[in-house]
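User: I'm preparing a small set of examples for a lab meeting where we compare how different chains pack in three dimensions. I only have the primary sequence for this one, and I'd like the structure in token form so I can line it up with the others. Please keep the answer compact; I'll paste it straight into my notes.
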Amino acid sequence: TPQFPDMILSSSRDKSVIMWKLTRDETNYGVPQRPLCGHSHFVSDVVVSSDGQFALSGSWDGTLRLWDLTTGITTRRFVGHTKDVLSVAFSADNRQIVSGSRDKTIKLWNTLGVCKYTVQEESHSEWVSCVRFSPNSNNPIIVSCGWDKTVKVWNLANCKLKTNHIGHSGYLNTVTVSPDGSLCASGGKD
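Assistant: Understood. Below is the structure token output for the 190-residue chain.
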């Protein structure tokens, strides 16, 4: 990000997120700069806002946290999932947040920590392992995948299912969306 050009974040089973400064020398790729602590269980996912000012983490404690990367302080805590949060994402404009959980739901949040919608109708029948927004605002969708071997595309305006993509023979771990929002790629146990 412009604010932290040599920074990456990692999430861990030690219940923390760590900000790293990349060094790119021959003996050391990076050094830890600051731990972001507050979750009470494994931190399963972390993403950075497109402006580089905030990080968003999801944890097995069932919560999401919004972090100010300048101060390292949690600015918002998102409570609503009943089981482990496995995946989190920012919308392209950083105004919306999506999360996926072992409770088999997808939740759409605002940045104030208010859950605006919980996708349950036609949702995944197993754990939701990854959620992503389309980076293209002309194609306002959320893409999700899960342990039910399915990729689902949701209309962002009403959180209704647009399409199911079936074809994997094993559970899915990850999904991503192309920059123009026209394609997605998924990966899993098959």
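A couple of notes for your slides: The chain has a mean pLDDT of 94. The longest strand covers residues 30-37.

User: Perfect, thanks.
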